């Protein structure tokens, strides 16, 4: 591990701590005005599905993309947290018995196991809804024009033409045998769309021109595809202890992955190519984009 | 039935037809850009849970509140359809086996019966997400400032401090025994919040001042409480044929209602009082508010 890798991972870890602190505050008992009854079990389920978890890669990408183009860090932190609420809602719903039926996530019981199915469904619904509240709220100090661009991009990245549509295609693929193009499309929607939004959101927050916005959007698209390839490779190769979840599950479930269809060697090569393409898009920004470059490498090389 | 009642119901029916036509178009195969793969089963589940249904009371309230204050009818129609997507998502999720476990709605199989649970969850998620897309989209010809007010009000009316929070309190109430204030709070959140938003949205669309906005918000709040009382009274009194769904279900499920707690006579009186209070708020607008007045009476007197 080189020194720059260490400092990148420290940087990522510090960003995750700041995201965690903001999410704790956004999901505290004080997140609702006094005149509204606090549905305590619902808030507890929302916190269970959101706090203490993960690398917070999506908020990190929002923050770094925004910083690259001179966006306000506090706005980027709030938008990053909104995006993390959408990501966590999707995990809560994907884990449900009628979807992937997972009992644990990150070594803890999933929300429907810790609470019950109804609470998990409502917690996911509420986190999704809350994301739009966080973006639109006066505390997010951004012009209305930019807020509306964020609302529109986030709803399209998360909805039927993005993440939710991808999950629907993924479930259907368990009983069909999609080809390479079909798998790429469903993965671009299911996993890629939110990572693409993360990078595009940074450009929107910074008020970037359409060219830079498109550049970051394409960068996000490429690392989104890379992320899923790396994930599928990890599922085949990593041992369960490193990954913190069961491995070989994709094959057991008949999940459509490019690794299963084209082999691990092909996937390694494609992953490397995508990573170089993503990094190439950043050349325009020079050394200011070092952290985003390292993020692309981190995604390709991560072990968990 | 007086002549004015007949013409009110015709007016409501014509509005429902226009809402239906707009929803058909918003949920058609063309609702996604060409480069996005259409998740056909997801779209079919979304249509099943949204089309051919109901009086479309919420879009009607958006349209009438907006018209009262001079708002653009096309904008009001789009915002009303967005709100109907949120309403239909909530019905799809409430019907799920882990919630109310209903097999039929409006005489047809519920979404999880016609498709499966995963499709119903994803269809609800996608409808909720789509609502924000519809409001933020360029086709909704409204200033960004007003769109952000709509996004913020809708997310708060639908989320943990509104509809979803109310559903969570309602499920918890099956195992506790909330008092009058507790039931009123959960009903104001679960059913009332969206009806309140419908009326407030009209004021936002029309660019009304804070006083008129508050007036319509309070009107919406009162007819929201009235709506739920009328619903609970119908569950006790109506026969199943008129209502198109099973009756007496609230008691069988141990649902917390004011009718169960305080009796039908008390509820009738309270319903009449709320309706007069709501109508009183409209006096300020004179005869221009006739249709909203009739709507308040319709809510109190409806038989289904």
Briefly, what CATH class of chain A?
Mainly Alpha
- Tell me, rounded to a whole number, the average pLDDT of chain A: 92
Q: So, CATH architecture of chain A?
A: Orthogonal Bundle
* Relative helix content of chain A: over 70%
Structural class of chain A: mainly alpha
Count up the helices of chain A. Answer: 15
> Which stretches of chain A of 5+ consecutive residues score pLDDT under 50?
none
Q: What is the end-to-end distance of chain A?
A: 15 Å
Q: Which geometry of chain A do the CA atoms define?
A: globular
CATH topology of chain A: Farnesyl Diphosphate Synthase
User: What summary fits the major beta sheet of chain A?
Assistant: 2 strands, antiparallel
The beta-strand count of chain A equals 2
Q: Which chain pair has the greatest contact?
A: A-B, 58 and 59 residues
Spell out the helices and strands of chain A N to C: HHHHEEHHHHHHHHHHH
* Radius of gyration of chain A using CA atoms only: 19 Å
Classified in CATH, the superfamily of chain A is Farnesyl Diphosphate Synthase
Beta-strand portion of chain A reads under 5%
Q: Order of strands across the widest beta sheet of chain A?
A: 1-2
Number of individual domains of chain A: 1
Oligomer: homodimer
How would you describe the overall organization of this protein?
Two copies of one chain form a homodimer. The first copy, chain A, has a single domain, classed as Farnesyl Diphosphate Synthase, CATH 1.10.600.10. Chain A has 15 helices and two strands. Chain A has helices at 3-26, 40-50, 57-68, 73-94, 111-114, 117-136, 144-158, 163-173, 180-205, 210-237, 240-243, 249-253, 258-262, 264-281, 290-301, and strands at 104-105, 108-109. In chain A, β1 (104-105) and β2 (108-109) form a beta hairpin. In chain A, α4 (73-94) packs antiparallel against α9 (180-205), α10 (210-237) packs antiparallel against α14 and α14 runs antiparallel to α15 (290-301). In chain A, 53% of the residues are buried. At the A-B interface, α2, α6, α7, α8 and α9 of A face α2, α6, α7, α8 and α9 of B. Chains A, B: Its cofactor is Mg(2+). Chains A, B: It comes from Pseudorhizobium flavum. Chains A, B: GO terms for molecular function: metal ion binding; prenyltransferase activity. Chains A, B: This is Probable farnesyl diphosphate synthase.
